Amino acid sequence: MLGIDGFAPPVCTSVYMPTKRTTFRLSDEREQLLEEASAIVADDPEDDSLMADVIDTALTHLAESEQNI
Q1: 3-state secondary structure at position 50
Q2: At what angle do helices 28-41 and 51-64 cross, to 10 degrees?
């Protein structure tokens, strides 16, 4: 089937990669810590970092700093 412009629409393909999803409640203190971490991870003040990026950064830092615990 051709689109309005006479070309076929792009074919969307995706690869299903199962992931574990976890939902948890955030206390006010944890919410504040996540907001502070988001500000640290952000490239600039207008950047709204994805929570996954913030958590990945925090976990990486924790793993690399294991000897400090």
Answers
A1: coil
A2: 90
